[in-house]
Structures are given as structure tokens and as C-alpha cells.
Amino acid sequence: MHDLDQKLKTCSIVQARNLIVSLWDDLAVTKSQVEAGQKLDSCHKGMTKEDFLNAGKEVHATVDKMSTSALEGNSKKLTDQANSLAEKLKTFGAASKGAVASSANTAEQTKTLNDALQVLEQSEKLLHETYGAVVDKDNWDSTKKLLAAAHSLSQSLNNTMLKLPEKKAEDTAPMLLKCLE
Among 48, 19, 54, which Cα is nearest to 124's? Predict the structure, then answer.
């Protein structure tokens, strides 16, 4: 029974990673359209830059929860949060497209898409490390790698979200990494 439970957890994480890769591909196509001066799909036009930033905050909160679950050694919660991260990233991807669609400035559109692509790339790396931590849950090195990936993702999110001066950086991963040393 334990083996089956383990296989279900890892399968779920792989599916979440695949979703993130699909989101990355979709945003890369959108970026190509922006760079080519093509008209964008208006289905996300009602979303704003603020929606984009709020979606980023939701991703950030989930990353913090994943870090805590990794330290607790709770692979079930970690797996659930990996799936939650993928769902939050779907919203983040849609919101980034909305922010791009509501802007007429090509440089701003490209910057937003580059930032969103970086967040997705770091998210995929986090889920890669999450997979390792779930498979080898008693290995502290796996947990450290997960926390380092969470920190990199937090930095990408901060770079994205700090476009507005009143926003401040958030990241609990460095504090959690110090706990492991």
C-alpha cells in the first residue's frame, strides 16, 4: 500500500510539472506574437496588472507553504501544495496574458512576459526538487535542494512583483534554509 501511495504522489507531481511546461509554452507563443507585432487574443483583456500581481502573491503564499511542509517532512501536504501551485500558476499565466493584453506598450508587454516565463521556469525547477523530496523524504539534501529552488522562485516572483514601488520583497526560504544548517 505504501508503494502505491508513493507512486500516486509522484505521478501527481509529474502531472503538475507537465502543466507548468504547457503554461510556459503558451506564454512563449504569446511573447512571440508580441515581438512580431501580432494582435493578441482578447479573451484575457479584462484582467489588469493588479490581477497579475495578486496572482503572483498567491503563488508566493503556496511556495511558502511548500517550504514549511518540506521541513515538516509531510509529503502528502507537499504533494497537495505542488498541485495547488500548478493551479495558482494557471491563474498567474492567464493574469500575465491579461496584463499584456491591457497594455499598449510593447516593451512593457515583453517585460511582463519575460518575468512570467522566468517564474514558470523556476516553478518547474521547484517541482523537480519536490519530486526528489517526496521520493527521498528522509534525505535532508533533497529538502535543502527544494528550499533552494523555492528561494529562487521567490526571487523571480519578487523581481516580477516589485514593479510597483509600494510592493516589498517576500521570501521565507532563506530563513528556512538557515534552520537546516
Answer: 19
